[in-house]
Design a protein that fits this description.
13-stranded mixed sheet, alpha/beta, Rossmann fold, 16 strands, 18 helices
Length: 555
């Protein structure tokens, strides 16, 4: 552990420009007790010696960037390797000296990127694969000041379904600009994924204490408990916590709504392109566990070897199992019929489905999707239809005899969309958009408040081919339009949209409603209506798309 008390004999330049990598030497001011306060305050990035915040486990020392105090890689749980694999998280070991918290911690081991993904997707969303390690229960805090103010707290939960991703996977997730814009405390976290977080072996071994099928979700609960117990020292209000997450992050927020342990740990949730109206059954997740054991060459009920197996072996086997089980419904299905690694109802941590009875968690929800979600031109260019004839052929494979009528309806309603983007609108109508509407209306039926949005803003890059693709809103929500110019195009138009998106998320976090002066009137969802704000250069209430969702669903 490196802390202020054990930097003796180590070059400050080496530590802060080489070993830690805060910034280049010219941009960093290391403020020792004798350093000039004035010179430190003029620096873009500084590491003042008194920027220390207490936590239950020990003090942490951060850095400042353009007026925002930043603490990265703070442990909220103990190492999950070895005999702790697959088990519920435990508190971190306390530390004595102020712990340096200036760089992201390890991310959960996962299948590494091969470089074979779409160049378009890589351009729009450059990835940071991070350092993989089982000591991955870490979180990051951005705050205007570690003081006694009670600011709204916004906790970001990353995407990647339940198998991949991290709090640092994309630059768009950097919380500095959002904390500054909203005078809010922004938190992000890493947690266990894939087989390490969701091995449902309850029916496959005689050792009932071997694993927990929802360990990854319990990690998130532990992180939220850390926020409850520690965020006051970082200038945040533990009584006003909003979760926001995209794709897999939205799925996890959806599942948290069914977890009694989450009660009181958050008060609002923003589900971005990740609605999961229902929690999976144990039978769904047992299938991938069985495939995993087969890939590991384990045929008996003694699974103890999994505690000592090399992590590389586990990752290879989990990828094989996931590939056999998981089929992503690009069109025609409102719910996953088969899943990969995922949480499931176990009778205890998740006792029942979210809406089987009174709400488990009392939280207002802001729910939405993007207009062109899984645009094949972005994510699968080789499969993207170039003509309506290509699109009809693809639709026929999914919808059979209904393909002609579906294409006719959507082409009439979206006459200027390119075939690839139209295919994305059709698939979203049957999946992301359909799930968002179902989740919002179920929540309203249970007595909760929910608002729906659709992100329509289209990036100008790559000849506007991507449209409003899956993940397109993230850099704007975080007010990182210029930081992520390959995604947004940068410039005044992107900055104006970032103002709108960040202010909408901040308004919801601060007041529990997404409305503010820059938006028209925005009604809440009811059990039978789904008013939807189309967020764009000129935002408006979207046209009723129920006929589109009904056509895809075949009703």
């Amino acid at each position: 552990m490196i802390g202020p008390s054990n930097l003796k004999g180590v070059s400050r330049r080496a530590v802060f420009t080489g070993g830690v990598g805060l910034a280049t030497a010219s941009a960093v001011a290391f403020a020792s007790p004798t350093a000039s306060a004035a010179s430190a305050s003029q620096a873009l990035v500084s590491t003042p010696g008194d920027l220390v915040a207490p936590t239950i486990s020990g003090k942490v020392r951060g850095y400042r960037s353009s007026g925002i105090s930043i603490f990265k890689g703070i442990p909220y749980g103990a190492d999950t390797g070895g005999q702790a694999r697959f088990l519920p998280p435990k508190p971190p070991m306390p530390w004595a000296d102020a712990r340096l918290a200036v760089s992201y911690g390890p991310i959960c081991p996962q299948e590494r990127q091969t470089g074979a993904e779409s160049q378009i997707a890589s351009f729009l969303m450059p990835k940071d694969d991070g350092v993989h390690g089982e000591d991955c229960l870490r979180l990051n805090v951005w705050t205007p000041a570690a003081d006694i103010r009670r600011r709204p707290v916004m906790v970001w939960i990353h995407g990647g379904q339940y198998s991949a991703g991290s709090s640092q996977a994309h630059r768009s997730q950097d919380g500095e600009a959002l904390a500054r814009r909203g005078d809010a405390v922004v938190v992000s976290l890493n947690h266990r994924l894939n087989v390490l977080g969701y091995l449902n072996a309850l029916g496959l071994t005689d050792d009932k204490d071997f694993a927990h099928p929802n360990a990854g979700m319990l990690d998130i609960i532990a992180a939220l408990e850390w926020v409850r117990d520690n965020i006051t020292a970082f200038g945040g209000d533990p009584g006003n916590v909003t979760l926001f997450g995209q794709s897999g992050g939205g799925l996890k927020i959806s599942v948290l709504m069914a977890m009694p342990a989450a009660r009181g740990l958050f008060h609002k949730g923003i589900v971005q392109s990740g609605s999961q109206p229902h929690v999976f059954k144990a039978a769904d997740t047992e299938r991938v566990a069985a495939e995993f054991l087969k890939a590991m060459g384990i045929s008996g009920r003694d699974l103890s070897v999994l505690k000592t197996a090399p992590i590389e072996q586990l990752m290879a086997a989990e990828a094989v199992a996931r590939a056999k089980i998981m089929r992503f419904p690009l069109s025609g299905q409102a719910l996953w019929t088969t899943v990969g690694w995922a949480p499931s109802i176990d009778g205890t941590s998740i006792p029942r489905d979210t809406h089987d009875g009174p709400p488990v968690v009392d939280a207002a929800l802001l729910i939405g999707s993007t207009q062109h979600e899984f645009n094949p031109a972005v994510f699968m260019p080789k499969l993207a239809p170039a003509t309506d004839a290509d699109l009809l052929a693809a639709l026929t494979r999914s919808y059979g005899g209904r393909a002609d009528s579906i294409l006719k309806l959507f082409r009439e309603r979206h006459p200027y969309e390119a075939p690839a983007r139209l295919s994305a609108i059709i698939s979203s109508a049957g999946f992301n958009r359909a799930n968002a509407v179902e989740q919002a209306q179920l929540h309203a039926r249970a007595g909760g408040q929910a608002w729906l949005y659709r992100f329509d803003w289209q990036t100008p890059v790559l000849d506007a081919t991507p449209g409003a693709y899956h993940c397109a809103e993230i850099p704007l929500v975080f007010h990182n339009a210029q930081l992520c110019a390959t995604s947004t195009g940068g410039g005044p138009r992107a900055e104006t949209m970032a103002d709108l998106m960040a202010d909408t998320w901040i308004a919801f976090a601060r007041h529990g409603k997404p409305t503010h002066a820059a938006l028209p009137a925005w009604p809440a969802v009811t059990p039978t209506t789904a008013p939807t704000m189309a967020l764009d250069d000129r935002s408006r209430l979207a046209d009723d798309d129920s006929v589109e969702r009904a056509a895809v669903a075949g009703v």
